[in-house]
Predict the 3D structure of the following.
Amino acid sequence: MSSYDFLAGCYDRLTYDVDYSAWADYIEKHFAKAPLPGRTVLDLACGTGSLTRELALRGYEMIGADQSPEMLAEAAEKNRGAAPIEPIFLCQSMEKLDLYGTIDACVCCLDSVNYVTDPKKLARAFQRVHLFLMPGGLFLFDVNTPEKLAGLDGQVFLDETEDAYCVWRAEFSRRICTYFMDIFRLDPSTGQWDRGEELHRERAYTVEELTTLLEGAGFVDVQTWGERKLRPPRPGEQRIFFTARKDT
């Protein structure tokens, strides 16, 4: 079992309830808090490029990076002809990020940071983002909290649409939440259902750990925020946002 090889073909159908417009609204609120050096934005771990497209349509010059070729294929097709500037996509892992030039902001959304389960790789990923950011540039990402991931232990979930079906169960041990997925996808050309299995893992990082990694990478003004709120996190919130800047 591997991550996203099979899921990519039905990811958007199974995540139809994610409001990417609201995510983009929240990102732009942070962009407005202190002017960015420019409008080139990296969508790190961009997946199928839904958020990439939303920001591109708002006038940002977008770069999408993801380590899954299957997800990037979906992203490229989805963003074909997106105005005013069509995004470009790179097949790269976070810790090996290698851009052609600088960026003015980097966003990494939908708990993608949790998927980097090796803290040393995450440290390198933060260093790579810092390297390519312009002075004054913003890095924004969100994480699932340790409390949320621990609370998933032993639970079974079902996501279903007319042409996709996913049953997944979660196990939490030693700060790693493992998702075992059985996915069924309707092939419209044959009318038959294809079955795939995937394994996903997320690491539970504390605020203190992530702050230390960001500061170690050279970031300043590290702040935490509630779930899509412009206020500090409150006890019990299941998702926390981070912002950090590259010093001017």
